[in-house]
Amino acid sequence: TRSPADLYLEGSDQHRGWFQSSLLESCGTRGHAPFKGVLTHGFVLDEQGEKMAKSKGNVVSPLDVAKESGVEILRLWVALSDYSEDLRIGKQILQTTVDAYRKLRNSIRYLLGALNGYTDAEQVAYKDMPSLERYILHRVHALDAQVRSAYEVYDFAGVIRPVADFASQTLSALYFDIRKDCLYCDRPDSVKRRATRTVLNILFERLTAWLGPIMSFTTEEAWSYRYPDAPENVFRTLTPVPAEWHNEAEAARWEKIEHVLDVVTGALEEKRRDKVIGAALEAAPHVYIDNDVLMAAFDGIDAAEVFRTSQAVLSNSMGPEHAFRLEDVKDVSVVVLMAHGQKCQRSWRILPEVGTDPRYPDLSHRDADAVAYWDALHG
Predict the structure, then answer these.
(1) pTM, rounded to two decimals
(2) Which residue among 187, 197, 202, 300 is buried most deeply as judged by most CB within 10 Å?
(3) How far is CA 181 from CA 15, 72, 307, in A?
(4) Cα 192 to Cα 183: distance, rounded to the nearest angstrom
(5) Is 331 helix (H, G, I), strand (E, B) or coil?
(6) In the chain, which residue ranges form alpha helices assigned H by DSSP?
(7) Do 219 and 212 form a contact (C-beta atoms < 8 A)?
């Protein structure tokens, strides 16, 4: 065996046991410690923090967990736990782990579907990307450094928790939802759609690399599905992300946009609850922004796309008394109006222009152009 070992791994009871005896023996016979690093962990307890015992009937068998939920759940539970203290496990805790796993798996599955047929020919240079894509890459830049630092010190919770938050909040709830319309309906050669797929490809590469050491089977399955003939597997080494992805200006811009988005979402939910609208695409919110800095954040941004509505109007002024407001956001108010026009049968957006193109009377101009492009390519 090689000496010294990279890592000694045991329970905290071995500080004065194996760790100590091994250290004394190695120093006496070899003149150096037998390990480069030591990682100690607490004991596994039941959900109530009680010691497990057959007589109590509270023993949770790893084999049972693997059989019922899969070994990935067991690995993920370990990664989510603070092993520097005693760890708790039980049905409720494992269910929380299952939920976290499902969100991560769904994000990877979405990426596989959205990247079907993607090639390097679609790539868009960073300088040509829209604001939202540059913001997402800024988040990837920060998260990549955080994940690498966490792995260096065996802080697995410091990997999983921020990656899971990023996947569920920044990706699923924001980026995927906003760009869904673009992916489904824009022309394949549009810069925005190509930029979206470029970023989705980067996200797939980074997520599978970040999660590979912990969710090994899931990431390997995803990687093999996408690259069945690839010479390398999911456990490849990725270089740090480009420094140009660090973009505080875009981060600040999207923090302001999300500030406004929270109010609009609240207003739409109220109207949906009151049965005024069924879906957000039926709405055309008039958003009053009594703040020049917040208003400036929307320069060059399609507000309706961000709000996931058919239409939207922004006014740099104070809203009327009856406008919807959030208590902690005084400078943004919203009046939800019904979108006017006809419903596009492809994107479902309600727009006045639908029906004005005689070639495709049921489509908006954007969708008619996309269908015409497809028809021209495929005869």
Answers:
(1) 0.91
(2) 197
(3) 57, 33, 12
(4) 9
(5) strand
(6) 18-30, 62-69, 71-80, 91-114, 131-152, 157-165, 176-185, 191-211, 216-226, 248-273, 292-296, 303-307, 365-378
(7) yes
The 10s digit of each residue's pLDDT in 304-345 is 999 999 999 999 999 999 999 999 998 999 999 999 999 999
**Tokens read off for 349:** 């957006």
> Chain-centre distance of CA 291, in angstroms?
30
| Per-residue CA distances from 257 to 279, 323, 362 (Å) | 21, 19, 32
Residue of 102, 269, 261, 255 whose CA lies nearest to 178: 261
Cα(282)–Cα(374) distance, integer angstroms: 28
Enumerate the domain spans of the chain: 1-41, 92-246, 249-340
CA–CA separation, 100 vs 124, rounded Å? 32
Give the angle 120-219-63 at the CA atoms, nearest 5°.
Answer: 175
| Residue position matching structure tokens 């596989």 | 112
Encoded amino acid at 178, one letter:
I
**Ramachandran assignment for 148, one of left (phi > 0), alpha (psi -120 to 50 degrees), beta (any other):** alpha
* Best CATH choice for the domain 249-340 from the list 3.30.2320.20, 3.30.460.80, 2.40.10.10, 3.90.180.10: 3.30.2320.20
Phi, psi of 286 (to 5 degrees): -100, 115
Cβ contacts of residue 266 below 8 Å, gap of 6+? 324, 326, 334
- Count of Cβ atoms closer than 10 Å to residue 222 Cβ: 22
What is the residue whose two structure tokens read 């507000």?
303
Evaluate whether 3 touches 30 at the Cβ level (below 8 Å).
yes
Residue with tokens 């908006």: 364
- CATH, range 92-246: 1.10.730.20
Mean pLDDT of the chain: 94
Query: For residue range 52-86, what is the model confidence (pLDDT) as tens digits?
Result: 888 888 888 889 988 998 999 999 999 999 888 88
**What tokens appear for 308 in the block?**
């996931």
